[in-house]
Amino acid sequence: MPGQHRRGRRRIPVVAVGVTLAASLGGLALALMPGPARPAPRTTPSGEPAASAPTTASEAPAVPRDAVPFARAEGIRVYLPAPDPVLVAYHEASYRTAAAMSPLGTLQRNASRKKFPPPASSTPGPDYVVMSSRGRPTAATSAADVVLPASTRVRAPVSGRVVQAKPYRLYGTYHDWRVEIAVAGDPEVHVVMIHLIGVRVRRGDDVSATLSVIGRPRALPFRSQVDHYANGGDPHVHIEVKKPSSKTSPPH
Predict the structure, then answer these.
(1) Nearby residues of 120 by Cβ (< 8 Å), 6 or more positions away
(2) What are the tens digits of pLDDT across the range 115-163?
(3) Does residue 250 or residue 55 have the better pLDDT?
(4) Between 30 and 249, where is the model more confident?
């Protein structure tokens, strides 16, 4: 019957339509609203863009296949900061906070036979020398001087987060820069770099091994020990690995 047909129809409440329409308009309004402003890009002390990399201090990114490790220490690999260095030369670090490194590559000269027993065989890696003792109590391979052409871009030897990037006085006299990196995947281990110019990173920056540019090597204003092993007077960058228990240490 006609009356029964009318009574059987389902009526959609008007309030439900109103709510649905309001929700739709609200969603449209939110979609059209401008997003939060992006922060201005960070710059370094020299005004250049700060280094960045898709990593955190607890996550290690993949290292490029052509990256060459030159040492191991405290369970990590330390990579060459630039390809084809003039020389990799190990020596005694100034402070006991520096860990002994196990060189990778082929030993060309060992001038510290009392403190450094030569390895039984070579491993993949660069040629290296171990310089004579400086009379320090630290291991013969607790620091490495990587000699590079002056125009070389020095890159991060490990992936991680920069925890220090600041100028200091080398031996209390000479202007120099110090950069310290907490290693990704093992942030209790730190890698220190000194003898740098044109530093492009600052504290808090994430860096990737062999990819992120740190600066350029510094030519010291005096004859350094490594100059007796490498001809040409090229500058070098000093690299060492700090023991996990060494939270802070004075510049080297």
Answers:
(1) none
(2) 999 999 999 999 999 999 999 999 999 999 999 999 999 999 999 999 9
(3) 250
(4) 249
Which of 7-21, 47-61, 189-203 bottoms out in mean pLDDT, i.e. has the lowest? 7-21
Residues 6 or more apart whose Cβ sits within 8 Å of residue 116: 90, 110, 130, 139, 140, 141
Report domain extents, the chain: 2-32, 69-242
The contacts of residue 189 (CB under 8 Å, 6+ apart) are 74, 75, 76, 182, 183, 241, 242, 243, 244
Q: End-to-end alpha-carbon separation of the chain, Å?
A: 101
CATH of domain 69-242: 2.70.70
The pTM of the full predicted model, rounded to 2 decimals, is 0.75
How many other C-beta atoms are found inside a 10 Å radius of the C-beta of residue 83?
13
d(CA 101, CA 127) in angstroms, rounded, equals: 15
